[in-house]
Design goal:
Number of helices: 6
Strand order of the largest sheet: 1-2-3-6-5-4
Largest sheet: 6 strands, antiparallel, barrel
Number of strands: 6
CATH class: Mainly Beta
Order of helices and strands: HEEEHEEHHHEH
Structural class: alpha+beta
Oligomer: single chain
Shape: globular
Radius of gyration: 18 Å
Helix content: 25-40%
């Protein structure tokens, strides 16, 4: 399990976060790999900006995510110290306030939906969110924490004016053009 966590940490730091910051978020999510957003938190000890890719669900105007590692996850500790957060969704960036869900029904329903949206990740954790009973999900997800983010503002994303997606699209266009001319 430690090797898997290390692999995800490397993929997140050197692939997922740069991809989202560069505007490639819309190309990252699908039912197999899961639907992913990036949390932008402030380190609870360092005060530095930290990024954490997580699976998510949107319901009734709020964004939900899940800390599969429970309260020991670094990004969850950051949210606990400072609930103001920015979220880089595939479609743009929003700011909001994060709340840990304590209502049992809301927690169960959103845990199931996030796990359904997580693609292969939930299956790797031994959970089939489509068929597991409520009791089984509560048992397997006992340590998991569900977070609701209530948006309160929007930010420009990589595809908006001032963003950098145009640069990558221009480079890709030039590469394709050169390839076709050769």
């Amino acid at each position: 399990m430690d090797a898997l966590r290390t692999l995800f940490r490397i993929l997140n730091k050197y692939f997922m976060v740069p991809a989202f910051k560069s505007g490639f978020g819309p190309f990252m999510g699908n039912p197999f790999s899961g639907y992913i957003m990036v949390l932008k938190t402030v380190g609870h000890k360092s005060g530095l900006t930290r990024y954490a890719p997580v699976n998510y669900a949107i319901h009734d105007g709020s964004i939900y995510c899940l800390s599969g590692m429970g309260k020991i996850a670094h990004w969850y500790k950051n949210l606990s110290a400072n609930s103001q957060i920015e979220v880089i969704l595939p479609s743009g960036t929003v700011s909001g306030e994060a709340f840990t869900i304590t209502d049992a029904d809301e927690r169960l329903n959103m845990m199931r939906q996030i796990l359904k949206n997580s693609g292969f990740a939930s299956f790797m954790a031994g959970i089939n969110a489509f068929t597991i009973s409520d009791e089984g999900l509560l048992e397997k997800g006992e340590e998991m924490v569900v977070i609701r983010i209530e948006p309160n503002g929007i930010f420009a994303s990589a595809v908006d004016p001032g963003g950098k997606l145009w640069l990558w699209l221009t480079i890709a266009f030039i590469v394709v053009l050169v390839f076709l001319l050769i």
